[in-house]
Amino acid sequence: MSAHTSSPHPASSEDNQRRDHLTRLLTAVRARGGLALLALAGTDHPVLYVRHRGRLMPVVVVRGVTGGWWFIWGRSGFADAAHVEVAADHLAGPPVPPPDRDPYGRVVSLPPARAASPRLPQSPSQAHNGIAVKAVA
Q1: Residue 113: enclosing H or E segment and its boundaries?
Q2: Strand 36-39 relative to strand 125-128, pairing
Q3: Which of 22, 27, 30, 113 sits in a 20 to 30 Å window from 88, CA-based?
Q4: How many CB atoms sit inside 10 A of residue 11's CB?
Q5: How far apart are CA 93 and CA 61, in angstroms?
Q6: How far apart, in whole angstroms, are the C-alpha atoms of residue 111 and residue 98?
Q7: Alpha-carbon gap, residue 49 to 28, rounded angstroms
Q8: Of 99, 74, 106, 87, which Cα lies nearest the Cα of 32?
Q9: 61 and 21 in contact (C-beta within 8 Å)?
């Protein structure tokens, strides 16, 4: 019986293509200042992790039903693997700035998209959660 040192499943041409596409995307994301890490590179199913909008986003490569390769990420993100630059531009987009904090570490302002706008009463008597509210002078 001879010693078997290679992996139980030698990498196929398709596995190498998958890894090559992810490596090209990793390089393009890093060239744009993004953070990226290729995990499971020695397996049949490598995964690229990219810091995207403050979250760690897994990116995989799949073969399309009509041929070709596609990067897919998140719930609905995708790009043709032939257009690495487009995918890298999207994934390495502008970073999310951290929120402003007071000396105690509490958030002092919400990002504009989440900040609630104050609502002033339109009339002296206005319904609020099904209860009439009257302005008192």
Answers
A1: none
A2: unpaired
A3: 113
A4: 14
A5: 20
A6: 9
A7: 13
A8: 87
A9: yes
Contact yes or no for 133/126 (Cβ under 8 A) = yes
Helices and strands (H, E) in the chain, number of each type: 2, 7
| pLDDT tens for the 137 residues of the chain, in order | 444 444 444 556 776 888 999 999 999 999 998 889 898 877 778 899 998 877 889 999 999 998 899 999 988 889 999 999 999 998 987 766 666 777 777 777 665 555 555 555 555 554 444 444 444 44
Query: Residue 56 has which token pair?
Result: 């760690």
- What sign has the CA pseudo-torsion 26, 27, 28, 29? positive
Angle between helices 84-91 and 13-31 (to 10 degrees): 50
Among all chains, which residue has been given the structure tokens 């596995």? Answer: 15
Which tokens is 107 given?
Answer: 């958030």
- Return d(Cα 104, Cα 22) in angstroms, integer: 42
